[in-house]
Design a protein that fits this description.
54% helix; alpha/beta; 3-stranded antiparallel sheet; Rossmann fold; Helix Hairpins; 5-stranded parallel sheet
Length: 287
């Protein structure tokens, strides 16, 4: 029984080659470990392979397939210019989520999710603008003209705003999708996204409800390596989408140049007005 996840790995190693990861890496990261059997959500039963020593083992064949589906969605979203908001406020996820999302110029929330971050976006955006203003005051020196006490108060405000909003500083509109590392921990974020019809991609452990999630990734949401690995897969898919968009743009530009060149060639083949008149005169003479 203990060797069965390894047999899954051997049988399906090739399935995941295109995504740049092997089943062996999933196993080494502990992606397949669920929660204790007494702490589970029955809705996750279809994603469970078996039980071992009181711990549920996730079916990695299904995890692979669903990661692939999520990555395809992300790739297409990226190719069309969409942006993803990464949400990981749990300690295990904070560092990797902030780093990985920043590397692909997407957004992140790694501290407490502020209620209304999506559903009351205008208010949240006004607080982001306040953060930007305070940074400007500090950089141009205008802050130093204020009384010392007021400077201290404003810097405390700035520190707090930066802690919660730095990851969405460049987010000038609602995101096109959410990537969530823990469905239970980020329940409010998922609810807000559902209300607004924003697709949610999420790591869903055996104690979670998969129903509110558009792209379920059955996996261990507690292991740092597992969270980082899946976050990197999503980021890699996003980069693939950007490359696809660039290739399409270059292809379209080449097509336009070809059409312009062909159009020029055709125009040179057309008889001039004078040639047409000469032809008409010749025809009349022949008659």
């Amino acid at each position: 029984m203990a060797d069965q996840p390894n047999r899954q790995a051997q049988q399906h190693e090739e399935v995941f080659e295109d995504e740049g990861i092997s089943m062996k890496q999933l196993l080494e990261a502990g992606v397949h470990f669920g929660h204790q059997t007494r702490r589970w959500n029955p809705k996750m039963a279809k994603y469970i392979f078996n039980e071992r020593n009181g711990i549920y083992i996730l079916d990695l064949k299904k995890t692979v397939r669903m990661i692939h589906e999520a990555c395809e969605f992300v790739k297409n979203l990226s190719a069309s210019g969409g942006k993803i908001l990464f949400v990981g406020t749990k300690r295990q996820a904070q560092e990797s989520v902030a780093e990985i999302s920043s590397n692909i110029s997407c957004y992140h929330v790694t501290h407490r999710w502020l209620g209304g971050m999506l559903t009351n976006y205008k208010t949240i955006r006004s607080r982001v603008n306040r953060l930007i203003e305070l940074d400007r005051m500090r950089e141009d020196g205008s802050l130093s003209f204020l009384p010392k006490k007021e400077q201290i108060v404003l810097m405390k405000v700035r520190e707090r705003l930066n802690k919660y909003l730095a990851g969405i500083r460049e987010m000038d509109r609602l995101p096109d999708a959410l990537f969530v590392t823990d469905v239970r921990k980020e329940r409010i974020a998922v609810e807000e996204a559902n209300k607004l019809g924003i697709p949610v991609i999420a790591i869903v452990d055996t104690n979670c409800d998969p129903d509110p999630i558009d792209y379920v990734i059955p996996a261990n949401d507690d292991a740092i390596r597992a969270v980082r690995l899946i976050s990197e897969l999503i980021a890699n898919a996003y980069i693939q989408g950007q490359k696809l968009a660039q290739e399409r743009a270059e292809g379209a530009e080449g097509e336009l140049q070809l059409q312009a060149s062909s159009g020029g060639a055709h125009s040179n083949d057309q008889p001039s007005a004078q040639e047409y008149e000469d032809f008409q005169e010749d025809e009349e003479d022949n008659v």
